[in-house]
């Protein structure tokens, strides 16, 4: 059986709800609180995001004479595979990854034939270091 992301996301909720229904947990335990929380990058996510990234970062202008096509953003090498990867992994935060790629010239693939950009390493380190600092403050 192939598990889909939506199904996997519901498994912890179902486990908590089943544990509560069993009556074996203390009375002060609340029902699952994550049902309405959105994942990082889901706030303004759109299924059109992959197409938008492809158009904004790598599609050649269509009305140019044949020969050498000009790219909209030569600093960031984004094809449809990378666009799909970025939209699936980062959602509406993919613009932050692409901005970082452009600003720091980290727009190439980290490994040939794999859709991860160099900028993703820096972006991920920044996000997790911010989360770690906020956890330590609490």
Concise structural overview:
With 138 residues, this protein is mostly helical.
Largest sheet composition? none
Q: What is the terminal-to-terminal distance? A: 40 Å
Radius of gyration, in Å, reads: 20 Å
Unreliable segments of 5+ consecutive residues: 59-71
Instruction: Estimate the strand proportion.
Output: under 5%
Helical content stands at 40-55%
Name the overall outline.
elongated
- Overall mean confidence score, pLDDT: 75
Question: What is the number of E strands?
Answer: 0
Element string (H = helix, E = strand): HHHHH
Structural class: mainly alpha
Specify the number of helices: 5
Describe the structure.
This protein is an all-alpha fold and 138 residues long. It is 49% helix and 0% strand. The chain has five helices and no strands. Helix 4 crosses helix 5. The radius of gyration is 20 Å and the shape is elongated.
Topology:
Blueprint: H1 5-22, H2 49-57, H3 80-90, H4 94-103, H5 118-137
Helix pairs in contact: 2-3, 4-5
Offer a few descriptive terms.
mainly alpha, single chain, 5 helices, 138 residues, elongated, 0% strand
